[in-house]
Structure formats: C-alpha cells, structure tokens
Amino acid sequence: MYWLAVLMLTATGVSAQTVPTAMSSVAPELRECYMNVTLLNRNNLPPATMPVLIDIIRKIEDNPNNVLDLRQLSVLLLHTYRQDGIEFHPQENVNLANVLLFSPTFHSFHRHRLLVTRIIQASGSQSLNNDTISSDLKCALHHMLSTTVDFRVRGDESSCNQLSQYRIWRHVRSINDDVEILDPSLIKNGHENGQINEHKPDDDVEIQNYGNSFSERQLLANSQCPLLGGVVSTPWGAVSAGHVIAGIAAGTQPQQVPISDLTRGSVNLNDYRNVQQTVTPIFPATLSGDLAEAALIQGTERGSATSVSIGVAGGWNSTQARRYLMLQSSTNVQMTDPEIRGDVDGFVLGTVIQSALNIYNGLKLSQVLDMYYSPLNGVFQSEMRACNRQALGETHITMNTLTAETRAFAAALDSNIPLRGTIVGGLDQLVSSAVNNFQSYMTSNLNDQNCVTTQNTLRDYRLATNLYIVLDGSWPYLTVYPAISHLVDIIEVNKFGSSITLLSAADGSIVVNKTFSLADFHTEYTATRHQAMMTSINLETTLTNVRIMMHNELDHERTSNYVGGNSTVLLFLLHGQVQSSQQTFEQARILNETVPDLRILFATSTNQFDNLWTLVRDMHNDIMTVSLTGSDNSVATSMSRVVDRIQQTGRRIINPTCGSTYNSNLSGTRQFDDFVEPGFINFYSVSPNYFYLNNDNRRVRISRTSGQGSLTVCHSRRITQPRQNSTVNDNEDDTICQTIAASGEVEIRLQNACSGYSTINTCPLLYVSVQSNAVAASTASAICTDQRCRFPYNNRYMIQINDFDCFSSANRGVASFVVIIAVVMSVFYI
Questions:
Q1: What CATH homologous superfamily does 465-653 map to?
Q2: What is the CATH number of domain 666-802?
Q3: What is the largest CA-CA distance in the chain?
Q4: Residue 583: what pLDDT?
Q5: Which residue, 104, 437, 717, 740, shows the most beta carbons closer than 10 Å to its own?
Q6: Closest Cα to residue 533, out of 476, 462, 578?
Q7: Which positions ≥6 away from 380 have C-beta within 8 Å?
C-alpha cells in the first residue's frame, strides 16, 4: 500500500526541472555512499562538525572548474548533495548485485522534493561535476546535509536513554565508545549495505543484528534512540545543516510561489479555510517546512488534533569523533532540536543575506557560515551569531506570519506526502498548536551556550601553526585519535590558519602529508592507516629525516621569499619507551641550531624526562607527561599543557635568505601582509638568529594598510604574548605598546639587541603582538576582500623587516645551548 502511494506520487509529481536528488531512488551520484563498504562506514569519513562542513564547501568554492556565486552554490549544494529521507529497507531473496537496499522513503524526502523542484530551482544548465570533490568528502557532505532518521535497532536500547550509562551524554564516557571500527569479517552477508553500528559499551565494532525482521519503513522494531542524519556539531548546539543552506538559498531569490504550483490542482484549497494563496520560499525551506510535517503527520498518526509535539533532544556518540547523533525519543521526530536550530539559523541568515551581499557582493557561502558560527563579530553585525540564536529568532520571526505560511505550506505538502490518514478538517488547530509549541520550546528548552558565556570563555587569538606530530604507532588508535583530533580543532586547521602533518616515530616517514584541510586530515588518518604504522620508536632516524624535511622547507621559503607566517612546532606523541643516545642528541642539536624557529615538544605516556631533556630548548616546559585514559572528558585536561606550549609559540618573522645553511646574508627590506579580525590579537616571535650581532639599520616596522578602529602593537623580550595591559616603561623586560590610528606605523629597533649575551641561545627572542581595537559592532562593511581574507571585515597590516642577518651557533663556533645545559646539569649532579 505504501509503495503504491509512492509510485503514484512519483507519477503525478514529476518536476519541470530534472533534479537527481528529487528522484524516488537514491540519486545516481550518491549511490556509491551506500554501495561502497568503506564509504558506508562513517568512521572512514570526517566528523560531522561545522568546521569540516565549511572546509568542504571551501574546496568546492576554490575548484577552478566552478565559477559560482553564493546563490548559485547554495542552490546546487541542495540539488547535488542533499537528498533527505534515505532509509534502509531489508529484503529477503533480493539480488544485491541489482538492488540497492536504500531509498528515500522517510517523510522528509517529500518536502525536499518540493523544495528543489518547485521552490528553490537552479538556473540554466549549472551543475556540480561528480569529480568536484573526492568520494569521501562527497559522502560526508551528503550525510551532513540530508535529514533522515534511522530507526533500526542496534542492540543498546536497554541503556541508551539512561543518562548515567549511555555515552551520548558527557557524564560518563569511555574512549572505547568514541570511534566505531568496521569489522570486515562481518560485512560478508546478504545485507552489508544496511549496516550500522551496534553500540556496545565496550565494543564499537559494527555488527549487523537485524535477524529476519523485515519491516515496512523500519517501523516494526524501532530503536528507542534512533540516529538523526543531516546534523553537524557546533559549540551552540547540533544543527541540521541542510536547513541552514536551504534558508540561505531561499533568501537569495525572494519570490512568492503560488500554492497551485505546488499542488498542481491535486487538492482543493477551498477545503482549507484561511489558507493564503502563496508561500515565501524561506518559510518552507526552514521553519514552516518542519512545522507542516509535524502538523500533518502527528495529526494523522497520533490521534491528537490539538497538541503537536515539537522538539526532540539528542547527543553525539563522542565529543571528539562526532559522526552519529542519537535522539532521546523515537516518536514525534518531525522537528527535532537540531532541526529547530537549523531552521532558525537558516531563516535568520536567509533574511539578512541580501543585505550582506549588498555590503560585499563577492561574499562566499563558506564566509557566511564561518562568520555566523564564530564566537565574535558575526555576519557584519555583532548580534548576527549562532550564540544569539534565541534573540535572533524573537527579532526576525513573526508568529502570525509563521502561522499563515505554515498553514499554506501544510495544504501544499498534504497533496505531496503519503499520510496514514486523510485530514478533512482541523488543519488550523494543528498548525496553531505546532507554532505555539515551537515558540514555547525555543524559549524554554533550547538551553544552548549564549554569547555572554561564549565571550567569557573566548580565546582572543587564532593560532597559525604548522604542526608536525611524530606519532608512536604503539598507541591504541581509540586512545590517541581523540587527543590528535582535539589538537587539530584547537589549532584551527584550515586554509587561513594552521596545517597538520603526521609522521611516524619509527623513522620520521610521512603518514599524513602536510594539509591545511581539516576534512582531508580526518579522511586520511583512519584506524586502518594507524594500524599500518610501525610500532617502534627510533629517535635518531626520525630526527635525521625531520631535519632533512625542515631544511628542504627552509630552502623552499628562501625561493618563495617567505618573510613570515605560521609558527612551526614538532610534537612527539610517544607511548613506548624512548632509547636516547649520543647520536640522537647530536641530531637534535643540529636540528635546533639550524632550524631556529622550530619548537620541539615531547608528550609521553610515562615520565621520560631523563632520556629527553637534552633534546629540547626548554627542558622544564617542553617535556610533558600526558595521561590519555580513554575518557572524552579528560582529553582537554590531559592535553592542556601541550596546547599551552603550542599557543606560546608565536607566528614567525624571519629572514628568508638564510635557507638551511645560515650563511650571513642581509635581508635588505622585505615585507608581508597579515590580517587580524576585530577584537583579536596576532602574536609573533623573532629569533635572535636574525639580529645577534649589531646593525644600526636593523628593525621591524608594522604599518596600517586598511581596516576599522586602531591597532595596538606591543613588543617584549620576556613576555611571549605581550598585551596592552602589561607594564609600560623603558626596561627591555617589560611590554611596550604603541597605537596606530587610521594610518601610520610602529617601528621596533633592534640595535644591540643581544648586547651582554655571550651566545645566540642565551639572547632572548623578540615577541610582538598586533591587536585590533575595532568594536565588534562596527564591522558592517567589507574592507578585506582579497582571497587571503578569512573574514571581509578583517584589518590588514604590513610587517616589514630591514637588514635581518643569518647567525647560527652551528656555523659560528658559538657554544650550543644543549652543551651549556649538559655542563650545568653535570655539575649540578656531581
């Protein structure tokens, strides 16, 4: 009966526009996401987080074959990668070589079909090629945009809703619960395409456990905590990303769509009292779409004509490997908490997108999302941020208009969605109940982090670091992955920020090559890749190969005239016992002396200070013991010292002519541009290897290029992160600050900067900071529009160096810092 209804709907609802994701079968370009066993296992895909989503969208925007503006791209994302409502349908005696046991039959598909065929249509012959992004990222994007609910029983239903026992809430966590591993031995059966995880407390191996229970639309045996698809994690609550994109797309093409175009005469509007004759696209794309679904489905299936339930909470399978969001209830799931957030965010962004494009017509979709889901500044207005969601909803959503729009779209959807009953009256009451309960739920139940809390915990600087992690393969993957994932999130791996490289501690070979893409890193660093690593530690070989790598990087920077940018940190993350030797010490000495801007850190599972102290610059702070116990809650605490040391390593200002040889070579005058967003600070460090001997013309000059408000430039020889509120006097150990107004410059002179210091390694670095004093509320303009600007309202400035030289203790016979330390330590212990 149900399938007959679907076939009839397909026959009568053919669109004038061919949209593959509007088909009643899985779209051809998305089928590999359900047929390829590797892609079907979500643990082989990046985590479902907003930074990952933004990263994938940036890749599409940067693809030279796609010249699309914000409106075109937002529409094509919906047409290409979003297909709501795909469910698994187990069948007996089916030839799996010919039949894919997935199809879009969940209720959310029918609204999606209307949106992409009749309401949010693409123009002309525009499309996104199948090779625009890799299969891994295509499937990740599809799952982050496509709303569906997987009701299949997984085997943990007896405990999944007990908050003290189940892992989706953060009260009690086990690292073994974090990452689900696909067991290849369990996929060689007749229903491999339908596998999901059986979430056992101590065993996260995917096992098919459906027996012979074959049910229509998965409804005979529901999980008490089904999985919600189409969701991404943000600090301000889980969000249905497809709803956000749909709201933006609808907002870029304001129009009125006649109800008759949506029903095609299949329903008599006279049967519905007080129904307006048109809908505004932004409403069915967001709020009224879900509200109409709830009113129609609950009105025909729940037996209540007066009370429509809104909101279902849930939680992630992990705080560091967020790939599955589990709902607390399996009933009334038409408008869950993530969908509410996505609807409100999409509606608000769709409402303001035209004014944002008027400010900057080159605005990108990734920038809109990045600004809205940022802790400060917002979309050209400080209040236009996700942390302000509730207030934005109250400001932009008019309940009377929402009621009228929901009533109209419900009438249209009624003619397009198969229901288990026929509404012959009472639609007004159902819609009013849904809207009223939505308003109440928004006010009372969505207790997300607000802007005040956000700013109280805000780190007012963004890291720009090239982080090299030398990983010991003997770490259990489920133990070390959350720690690495935490670091990758903290340093903000993206095209405007940090990079990540993963090396093997066995020999320094590359496990994951250097990447500025968060999505690519998570795609490449999987359990399979980790398990293929050697489990030994050879510091001598590793340091030798790392030195060669770093020297090649320095020579490349000389060729490219790289004057400044990301800091460089080499982090050894070791689980096994370290064997040090004179040869190891010698390799560390050469590395430290010939790559002066490199900071070497060790984080070990046991205290190995005695074996490592000669290998680092600061033995008291660069060697740490980390306890990765297997608890998600403990990751941030365990890695806090590591994070602090990475944060204390400022961005580099260098003499690019030095290369790897450090032969004396004056830089002359060279410069680079950098950017800082309102209210944030950039921190830099300059090694004495560039100013050890005196030169009267040696200086650093920072000048204003463009931006709002003033810039404050501070410098210190002692404070690694100098700020305005530090002591200001003539002592070189104190912080000295100067302000640049609309124009001007600050000059930091480096004459005799190492006077009184007998070696390069005892001469302190120069620490510099550049802070934007622009008020966040004053960012309603686009002043930074080149491709290097992460945000259109960033302040741009220039850092110029003059007559930097090249000095190295390795080639000048100056005593090595490690030699001095060794002598001191030997005297101390004698």
A1: von Willebrand factor, type A domain (3.40.50.410)
A2: 2.60.120.380
A3: 99
A4: 93
A5: 104
A6: 476
A7: 355, 356, 359, 371, 779, 780, 781, 782, 792, 793
Backbone φ and ψ of 625, nearest 5°: -105, 130
**pTM of the entire predicted model:** 0.90
Match 């290998």 to its residue by tokens: 615
- Residue 271: pLDDT band (50, 70, 90) is low
Give the CA dihedral 395, 396, 398, 402, nearest 10 degrees. Answer: -150
Q: How far apart are the first and last CA of the chain?
A: 90
- Cβ atoms of residues 680 and 733 within 8 Å: no
Residues 644-667 as b or e (16 or more Cβ within 10 Å = b)? ebbbbbbbbbbbbbbbbebeebeb
Q: Which of 721, 590, 732, 593 is nearest to 651 (CA)?
A: 721
Q: In this model, does residue 486 exceed pLDDT 60?
A: yes
Residue type, 791: F
Cα 398 to chain centroid, rounded: 32
| Other Cβ atoms within 10 Å of 212 Cβ, number | 6
Give pLDDT tens digits for 324-378: 999 999 899 999 999 999 999 999 999 999 999 999 999 999 999 999 999 999 9
Give the dihedral sign, CA 144/148/149/155. negative
**Ranges of CATH 2.60.120.380 domains, the chain:** 666-802
H/E element holding 248? helix 241-251
Which part of the chain has CATH 3.40.50.410?
A: 465-653
Please answer whether residues 65 and 71 qualify as being in contact, where contact means their C-beta atoms are separated by less than 8 angstroms: no
